[in-house]
Amino acid sequence: MKKRKIDDQFADYVMEHKHSFYRLSYSYVKNPEDAMDVVQEAIHKALKSVHRLEDASKMHSWFYKIVVNTALDFLRKKKRVQVTDDDTLEFLSQGESDVYEDQDVKRAIEDLPEMYRVIIILRFFEDLKLEDIAQILDENENTIKTRLYKALRLLKVELSQEEI
Questions:
Q1: Any idea where the domains of the chain sit in the sequence?
Q2: Three-state SS string across the chain, please?
Q3: How far apart are the first and last CA of the chain?
């Protein structure tokens, strides 16, 4: 009976927050189809182990962690299988480009080392608390705070250099 209940809670949770998971996944893989694949794979992984989740109140950080790890796994696999370089792909794409409200901020965030970028994304784009981010990344909360402030300083330096 308990297994069915947690499965139902998980299904409801995924449906309620599906856009957040997609947005998080997209922030890593930068491709709509790949982002969907990552979310689907994360759901598949979670369904196989949801019965081990003892406290449903921890479902949020538990599943975000699965999405982040699945996205990172995807990027590692993609890095090994890259068929062509980015310049060739850009040339072949006939000049289509995404529209971003603030290219400088987007590029500055993408240029951050991964350990800082993920914290910025989870904190400011997914609006997660530092405590939740610490659980997702298996880090001490003070470590997350330190990395967040370091990331913000790096962004400030990068963005102030662009104004010159």
A1: 1-95, 99-164
A2: CHHHHHHHHHHHHHHHHHHHHHHHHHHHHCCHHHHHHHHHHHHHHHHHHHHHCCCHHHHHHHHHHHHHHHHHHHHHHHHHCCCCCHHHHHHHCCCCCCCCCCHHHHHHHHHCCHHHHHHHHHHHHCCCCHHHHHHHHCCCHHHHHHHHHHHHHHHHHHHHHHHC
A3: 63
- Closest Cα to residue 45, out of 18, 66, 24? 66
Measured CA distances, 14 to 34, 36, 70, 97 (Å): 18, 13, 16, 30
Domain 99-164 in the same topology as domain 1-95: no
CATH code reported for the domain at 99-164: 1.10.10.10
Which residues, at least 6 apart from 153, have a Cβ–Cβ distance to it below 8 Å? none
Q: Which residues, 6 or more positions from 72, have their beta carbon under 8 angstroms from its beta carbon?
A: 28
pLDDT in tens, 39-96: 999 999 999 988 888 888 888 889 999 999 999 888 888 765 544 455 554 544 544 4
C-alpha 18/C-alpha 40 separation (Å) is 10
> Whole-model pTM?
0.68
Architecture of domain 1-95: Orthogonal Bundle (1.10)
